[in-house]
Amino acid sequence: MIKSALFALSIVLAAHTPVTAAPEGHMTWAVHFSLAPTFFDPAETPGLITPFLVLYALHDGLVKPMPGKLAAESLAQSWKMSPDGLTYEFVLRQGVKFHNGDPVTAEDVKFSFERYKGAASTTLKKRVASVEVVDAHRVRFKLAQPWPDFMTFYATPATGAAWIVPKKYVEKVGDDGFKKAPIGAGPYKFVSFNPGVELVLEANEQYWRKVPSVKRLVFKVVPDEATRLAMLKRNEADVAYSIRSELAEEIKRTPGLTLKGPRGGFTEWIAFIDQWDRKSPWSDVRVRQAANYAVDRQAINNAEYLGLSKVTATIIPSGFDYAWSPPVYPFDRAKAKKLLAEAGYPNGFDGGQINADLVYAQLAEHVANQLAVVGIKLKINPMERAAIVKASQEKKLKNMHRQGSAAFGNAATRIEAFIVSDGMFAYGGYPDMDGLFREQAAEMDRKKREAILVKLQQLMHEKAMFLPLFEPAFLIGIGPRVAESGIGVIPQHNYSAPYEDVTLKGK
């Protein structure tokens, strides 16, 4: 009798227990740049959003932006700051494993931080006095002094420092071996990588948050924009990144295809690399101002982004905390020529080259053509993305550089990477601005800190350090098989994410 009752109860419970469907099908992204193994390792994350196209799939962070929350608990189920602001303690989610079956522990967190060498690594290592393993599931960060931006620099994709890798595996295979066969704790596992061709990932059905819907993700490297669009039309790609100009118009006209244009935390600009070389014309602020007046940003916006981007006068996204919006330079060629004449260049000069990621070489050409009208002659130097990022980090580029960043953070994180003298992408700096940056980092009063950061941004504008262009609309084509692309789901993130949430129709 008891056995019969238990058997009946088990049937009732089974009927009410939700069954998670196994992952099915495949989804293909046509990616606009060549993927590189450096993007597979969180330790090498630059102050750019590029690697997070892969990291959100392969890896997981203690805390990371997710739908509806910019600082969502992930591998850490909770965290707290001590009243004096000197200690941060993270409690890890139990039962979580890396793709090879190793448990995620506090040792992995400590190891991942200590081997981190990407964006803001110098700042982080200088301000974190120690990382202590309390027990297998608790880790404690002790700061040298209170730092209001610790969580912004550590636990958002302003850096990759809080994205966790398996200590035992990395120590076994080494850094190069890890990039060849990365193992993480994310929703997808590494299957294969053919450089210049494709990256293939497969669903991790033990992922702690949920079982992914799609079985296999394929990221195809397709540098040619027209080819990406053709693949989308033929259902050879489900998502095609960076489709601009007339091709974006074609997506809008094609039945079954959808054009999306998230803006997020993306800004792009031209950097005056030679402004610290006193022999260069670019060292004169009047020349840099002239260049700013000589460019018709709205015309470029209309030509490249269908007018959907926001013209800007700063490299700091308007939605960032502590952002200050300077007045936009009006398009005024007469004023540009007047400034050039005052600087001693009435007939213009040879400005060298604009270095540009291949994806944005056409945009750089628009800028060069407009500067040529006022006498500034430039050549375009297009490079693969991984190569130009490496060259910029190593300070090997000359003259000018079309830069951009869609990395998360606030005004301070963007300034740290591109403005401060020892920033990852800075070719020089100004002592007064470096001093203000150090001052704001230690200021615990929010209003006082905001005033310092605004002053910093005002100096950036007064010195005309950059030729700011846009907060671009990152134009993306979505194919007819897609139910949820993940585009625009996480605020400030322009790529698909979280990948465990993407779905195909009929699923």
Keywords:
Dipeptide-binding Protein, domain 3; disordered N terminus; alpha+beta; 507 residues; seven-stranded mixed β-sheet; D-Maltodextrin-Binding Protein, domain 2; Dipeptide-binding Protein, domain 1
Characterize the structure shown.
The chain is of the alpha+beta class and 507 residues long. It has three domains: 60-168, Dipeptide-binding Protein, Domain 1 (Dipeptide-binding Protein, domain 1); 186-262 and 474-504, Periplasmic binding protein-like II (D-Maltodextrin-Binding Protein, domain 2, 3-Layer(aba) Sandwich); 267-471, Dipeptide-binding Protein, domain 3 (Roll), CATH 3.10.105.10. The protein has 16 helices and 21 strands. A seven-stranded mixed beta sheet has the order 8-9-10-1-11-19-12, covered by helices on one side. A six-stranded mixed beta sheet has the order 14-18-13-17-15-16. It has a four-stranded antiparallel beta sheet with strand order 4-5-7-6. The relative contact order is 0.16.
Strand content: 15-25%
User: Span between N and C termini?
Assistant: 42 Å
The CATH architecture of the largest domain can be named as: Roll
Just give the CATH class of the largest domain: Alpha Beta
Brief overview:
The chain has 16 helices and 21 strands.
Task: Give the helix/strand layout.
Blueprint: H1 2-16, E1 24-31, H2 52-58, E2 63-66, E3 69-73, E4 76-81, E5 87-92, H3 106-115, H4 121-127, E6 128-135, E7 138-143, H5 150-155, H6 167-180, E8 188-194, E9 198-203, E10 214-221, H7 225-233, E11 239-240, H8 245-253, E12 258-260, E13 267-272, H9 285-294, H10 297-305, E14 310-311, H11 333-342, E15 349-357, H12 361-373, E16 376-383, H13 385-393, E17 400-405, H14 411-418, H15 431-442, H16 446-462, E18 466-471, E19 476-478, E20 482-484, E21 503-504
Parallel strand pairs: 1-10, 1-11, 15-16, 15-17
Antiparallel strand pairs: 2-3, 4-5, 5-7, 6-7, 8-9, 9-10, 11-19, 12-19, 13-17, 13-18, 14-18, 20-21
